[in-house]
């Protein structure tokens, strides 16, 4: 038969939790307040989100209208440019025609040319001029007659350009297009103005709600700080419990791995530590008694741990 396994028993002091009723009440009030502030802030966030969605909808409606208004501006500008082009061409032609006429010494119109030739012929027919002057006039008449075809051509071009400027069906069509475009553009601009007014109202409402959100966030943060402070106080009051839990966890670990020597050393150190605190600190004794009293009552034990004698 093998030797029986040895059984070791180590008893550790257990520190129980202690709940201060007043502190617990304050903590519950602070927690409730914090949750209410979170709920209130969530409602404001939902309101901000809804207004931002409304703003996005307005902007999505504005974008195509703004693009359409821009196209209207381009159409009107293009048609005005087309209307100004013949006028500019006529002005440039007249300017060039006059300059050419001055340089070449001929007239700018057929009527003027014919009148000039007639006047020169009348002077020759008058016979009161010298032979030299008569030859000069004859040469001028000859030069003028050479340029008559060019004068007729320029007069024809000038007349055509003048007709384009003075008004024709094409020009009238352009005017009608511009008028129709501007009427349609006015309707679009009216819609744009209405949406921009709505957008300004929504932006004002968002700014106001954002202020409410900032205030709600500040209240929530303050409530959380109060909750943390109370939690810190609670943890400080139960610091010995947390330390005792760590010791018991270590003891269970040693026991599970059958480290008897380590477990015995830990047990001895903890017992010596507890007895030193018990003997030297009244506050420690009072705190320990407060923590164990509720457990003793539940197990029907007296304050010294002995079985309570029932009252008959």
Written description of the protein model:
- This protein is an all-alpha fold.
- Helices cover 84% and strands 0% of the residues.
- It contains eight helices and no strands.
- α1 runs antiparallel to α4 and α6 runs antiparallel to α7 (260-280).
- It is rod-shaped.
- The protein starts with 20 loop residues before the first helix and ends in a 14-residue tail after the last helix.
- Residues 93-106 have low confidence and may be disordered.
Structure keywords:
312 residues, mainly alpha
Topology:
Elements: H1 21-104, H2 110-126, H3 131-146, H4 148-166, H5 169-237, H6 239-256, H7 260-280, H8 282-298
Helix pairs in contact: 1-4, 1-5, 2-3, 6-7
**What's the multimeric state?**
single chain
Biggest sheet overview = none
- The average pLDDT value, as a whole number, equals 77
Topology pattern, helix = H, strand = E: HHHHHHHH
- Given helix and strand content, the structural type is mainly alpha
Number of helices in the DSSP assignment? 8
Rg result: 55 Å
Helix content range: over 70%
Residue share in β-strands: under 5%
* β-strand number: 0
Condensed summary:
The chain has helices at 21-104, 110-126, 131-146, 148-166, 169-237, 239-256, 260-280, 282-298.
